[in-house]
Amino acid sequence: HGESVVDIGSLHKEFGYFTYDPGFVSTSSCKSAITYLDGDKGELLYRGYPIEQLAEQCSHLEVSYLLLNGELPTAQQLTDFEHIISHHTLIKDALLKFFDGFNYDAHPMAMMTGVVGSLAGFYHDNLNILDPEHRKITAHRLIAKMPTIAAACYKHNIQQPFMYPRNDLSYCGNLLHMMFATPCEEYEIDPIAEKAMDVLFILHADHEQNASTSTVRLAGSSDANPYAAIAAGIACLWGPAHGGANEAVLRMLDQIGDVSNIEKYIAKAKDKNDSFKLMGFGHRVYKNFDPRAKIIKGICHQVLAKYGNDPRMELAMRLEEIALRDEYFVERKLYPNVDFYSGIIYKALGIPVEMFTPMFAIARTVGWISHWVEMISDPAKKIGRPRQLYIGAAKRTVPGLGERG
Ligand code: ACO
Questions:
Q1: Spatial separation of the C-alpha atoms in residues 379 and 385, rounded to whole Å
Q2: Which residues pair with 35 in a beta bridge?
Q3: Which helix (H) or strand (E) holds 36?
Q4: pLDDT of 195 strictly over 70
Q5: Which GO terms describe its biological process (predicted)?
Q6: Any residues with Cβ below 6 Å from ligand 1, and which?
């Protein structure tokens, strides 16, 4: 070790063998029974059920129950679950005051990270993560309160009064109400918008060990407060290489502006000296079409048929068509991912671009908390503690101040 900093051959004698796998490209960090995905086939299963069937036949809360509990609910279990979730939606008045500490134009993901982390201060005393009942209550609180917090972020951004949740509405209906109703005016919930949002939430609900879920597991592995662990996940999701991609896609389409500019931007994406990437393209695991992107493209057409065509849709479809014929994208198996079309749907529903990633965070909350519960309940749980391959200076002696030239 002292003689050569990269002599791995001798290092193992002291420390044993370990893998060097930047980005965890081929390292399983855990065992999990929640989500299965086959990147070559483009297949995604939640607890064994294909995503296509769940998106067509179930609601987001049904799927949330499935992810959390391992089985689909019976009719009675679903009614009970919906009742529990709708009765945990309120946030404490003191929590609402947190928002005043943020600039009115703060990014909602910045506010969400802070506000969700602060739940640790509100629900700490009676929290015993070793008690399965408390874990369940934590999961219910998070699933229920996340839309309320996201809507409060939006209202803070547009400087309108916060709208209290309504228990008589569906999960997504209530979110639309909290975002778009005002104290002076009711908001009429369009069933097409409500359904489209619900399906998007199902598609975003879990995706095994993606960066934000792995972050939640790693943060939670120290037995940290679960609200703090989820806040870490939200912070990770924000990045444009992950959940921030839906916002980045819309900004990219606006930047491209017109079908005639597509070739120029494709060339930029291929140029290794240019940092520009086709946002919404490529995935670490899918080397075939992302099955969620296929479903989303279908919803996109339905929503735009109702809300009027968005020229970005035409642009996105042409971009996809041209990229999928291009050798660079074909060779690297770069297909549209879940976020390529989701932003166009959200935009059509009147959701502002900055709120796209908070929408993703609401949907992914059930995935994060299901993984947290699975990890914390595992009797073989260990604190997450990766190793490193040290490439710094070899051991040396500290010189006196006058000797450092
Ligand atoms: N545009 C242009 N080239 C790309 C793109 C892209 N969107 N994505 C990957 N590539 C290229 C890489 O430059 C690399 O080329 P090289 O082999 O010549 O060096 C090759 O394809 C492999 O890409 P990696 O970056 O090694 O793949 P990785 O698995 O590490 O990254 C990622 C996956 C982060 C999703 C990447 O494809 C990307 O940045 N995409 C755009 C952002 C995006 O849409 N993110 C959302 C992902 S889905 C989600 O999180 C919900």
A1: 17
A2: 46
A3: strand 35-38
A4: yes
A5: tricarboxylic acid cycle
A6: 23, 210, 241-243, 245, 269, 277-284, 332, 334, 337-339
